[in-house]
Amino acid sequence: MNIHTYEKAWLIASMVLIVGFIATITYGAVGPGIAMIDDDGGSVDPSEINDHERFGDPGVTHVGGNEYEVAVVAQAWSYTPSEIEVPADSEVTFYVTSRDVTHSFTVAGTNINTMVVPGEVSEMTVEFDEPDEYGILCNEYCGESHHTMEGKLNVVPEDEFDLTELSVEAPDEVEAGNETTVTATVENGMQDDLETTATLEIGGETYEEDVTVPGDDSEDVEFAVDTADLEEGDHDWTVTVDDHEESGTLTVSNSTDGGDGDA
Ligand code: CUA
Q1: What does the pLDDT read at residue 129?
Q2: Which of 25, 216, 245, 253 is most buried, judging by how many CB atoms fall within 10 Å of its CB?
Q3: What is the domain-level CATH number for residue 239?
């Protein structure tokens, strides 16, 4: 059979077009990593979110290496937490659920965009290479203040990121001549050991203690403060651990001389 040259050309051209269309659709479905939400992330009872292992205390958790998990609870009309901070050069898995109605969790300028359905957990893993700031917004109409439902995602340089928490227990008042204790609790949210120094400054004196906090644990640092070094009156104190700071005031009173001091 003899096919006319023009007819042959048209046949080939239409074959090329068909293959091209299929390739485009395949790339669109697989290439940019677009996925539908499914029940991969599991389910959760919306009325028991507060007691849930993951969503009871939502936020950023270190998994190990450069991997992090972020649990987010959406509700009318906010996200908890509303501001998320993760380090650059990390792989972050988001777990998002809703307390009430259907919302979305959309990170503007990225391909993070999922529906958030009550009872379901939407799960997605994203890599963040560079420090940046993103807005989080809700794309699903969820009531009168839908348009105000927003959050923030900050990808910070690795050396600015930490999951350390500092809390300090100190007495308000101590009698002159007595010793007292200021206790700093250092919580390490990373899986790796944290080696650092806790510093207490009070009345011109500086106390320093080295501390190693195991991964996912906390450690108490006790400073014995001798009032022999302090005059009567109010003394501001500051406890510092890395970039974290807590401060307060300790009053040294003199009750032995009949209480005519101004404490
Ligand atoms: Cu939540 Cu719109």
Answers
A1: 93
A2: 253
A3: 2.60.40.10
- With CA atoms as reference, report the closest residue to 42 among 50, 53, 34: 53
Would the CB of 103 count as within 6 Å of ligand 1? yes
Ligand 1 centre and the CA of 170: distance in Å? 43
In degrees and rounded to multiples of 5, residue 11 shows phi and psi of: -60, -50
**CATH number of the domain enclosing 144:** 2.60.40.420
Distance, CA 16 to ligand 1 centroid (Å)?
Answer: 44
CA separation for the pair 152, 106 (Å, rounded): 11
Position 10, amino acid: W
pLDDT, tens digit, 9 for 90 and up, residues 165-217: 999 999 999 998 889 999 999 999 999 999 999 999 998 889 999 999 999 99
Res. 254 pLDDT band, cuts 50 70 90? confident
Residues 175 and 119 in one domain: no
Q: Is 88 exposed, middle or buried (0-12, 13-18, 19+ CB in 10 A)?
A: middle
- pLDDT at position 154, please? 96
